[in-house]
Every structure is written in C-alpha cells, then in structure tokens.
Write a structure and sequence with these properties.
This protein is an all-alpha fold and about 325 residues long. It is about 90% helix and about 0% strand. The chain contains eleven helices and no strands. The chain is elongated, with a radius of gyration of 26 Å.
Amino acid sequence: MVKRLGRRLLGYVARRWKLATASLLASLAGSAAGLIAPLYARNAVNMLVEGSIEHLWFYAVMIVTLTVVQGLLSFATNFLSQYLAQRVVYDLRNEVYRHLQELSLGFYKRVDTGQLVARATSDVEVSSRFIRFTFSGFASAILTLALALYIMVSLNPLLTAYSLAPLPLMFVLVRIFTKKIRAVFERAREVYGQFTSHLTEVIGGLRVVRALNASNYLLSRFLSMNEEYLALTLRAARLRALTWPSVGMLFSLSLLIVLWIGGSMLVRGEIRVGDLVAMSLYVGMMVWPFIALGFFATMYARTVAALSRVFEILDAEP
C-alpha cells in the first residue's frame, strides 16, 4: 500500500516533469559546488604549511566563487521546488473537488463533512511539504553523501573506514524511528479529521445545539478528541527528541574519531594537514544527509498517512 501511494503521488509529479527536472538539477549542481570547496581548502592549507603563498589567491577566489554559486543554486532550488509542489497540489485539489461533485448522496451520508474538508485541505497540503523537501533537500543529501564518501576514500581509505564506524547504529535508529512515527501520524490524521468534522457540525447547527442544551456534552466530546490529538503530537515530539540528538551524538563521535586517529597519523607523517582539514569538513557535510534521511522517513510516513485519506475519496465510486 505504501509503495502504491508513493507511485500515485509520483504520477502527479510526472505531469510537471520539466519543472521537476530543473529543480533536481539545480539541487544536485548546488551540492556539487559545495563538495568541491573543501578540496581547494585542502590545497590551500597544504601550501601554507609548506610556506608557499604564490597561488594562494587562486584558491581563495575559487572558494568564494563556489560559495556564491552554491548560494544562487540554493535559491533556484528552493524556488523551483516550491513552485513544483504548489502546481502538484493545485492539480490534486482540482481532481478531488471534481470527484466530490460526482459522488452520490449516499457517500455524504457515510462520511462526515469535516472529514472531507480536512482531507481536501490539510491532508493535501502535507504532500506539498513532502515534494518541496524531496526536491530541495533529500536529492542533494543523497548526492552529498555519495560524493563525500568517494572523496574521503580517495583521500585516506583507512581514516574513512574509522569515521564510518558509527553509521550502522544510525541506520538502526532511523529505522526504529520511522516504524514508530508512522503509526502515530496515521492515528493523528484520523483524530484531526474527527474533531474537524465535530467543529463543522457544531458550528453549522449551533442554534439546534443551544436549543437542546447540548453544549456541555459536545464540549466534553471535543475535549476528549483534542486531548488524544495532543497526546499523539507529544508522542511524536518525544520520538524526535530521542532520535535526532542521538544521531547528532554519533556524528560528533565520528568527527572525534577523525581528529583523534587523523592527528596520530599526522604526527607519524602518514597524512598531510590539508588532508586532515578536508576530512573533517567532509565528515561535517555528512551530518545533513543522515538528518535528511530521517526527515525524509518522517515526512514520507506523514504523507502516506495523509494521502491514504485523500485517495480514499478519489477511489470512491460515483
């Protein structure tokens, strides 16, 4: 089911394939520019250690140029990914609205109005945030991770192997987090639809509610649903609070390993100062890809929970 929902969302993105391609290329180019800069910093540091400053200006200009290029490409990526997300949501909302016009009256007797409003608005908007992040953050994170690992191995395979020691535990943490957070998000979307429906019905029939003196009863129902929603959001917050600091701690451990073992290798003359600086920079760059993987897993779980409710409307027979 999860894969099927993902493929259906991808079908909406494919309708805007030119925009998606432009956003993806801008994101990948920006990441590549950021990955080249540490190599120039490595050469500059090695030149300074050797007492040569003849070509230092060239490396300084290249680092500044790459930083500016990365900034411009980042702007283009954010704009294009946002535009793509809004166009996809525009298509999805129109399709949901058209299908609602075709459904029978029996469908509206079975499904609360508030549920339909929540699915056509907030649930659809969840997919917008997911698309925007996928094309602006996740794609560049994958490229950064792959190229950073390749460059690190080319600089010093042994030191790279030591720095990657904490990675298996990170994957375990993200996998456990994704499994737990998905169930929380699915239930949270259901409860959100319930109290949205409750609000719609109460506000629409407020005169009847007051005439029957049912305010206290309906208030207690709303408070019960709101408390459950609060408990679910707090549970999701606790899961994030436990997971991401743990991931950050493991990356700090990875950097410590690089500095400790790399420093020992530097003393023995097995590595140059510039290489150690570059390795430290690349380890720092690998922090974001793993955090992005966690964000992607979280947002994908939330998007699947929301889209299952949206496509339930689209799959309903007229």
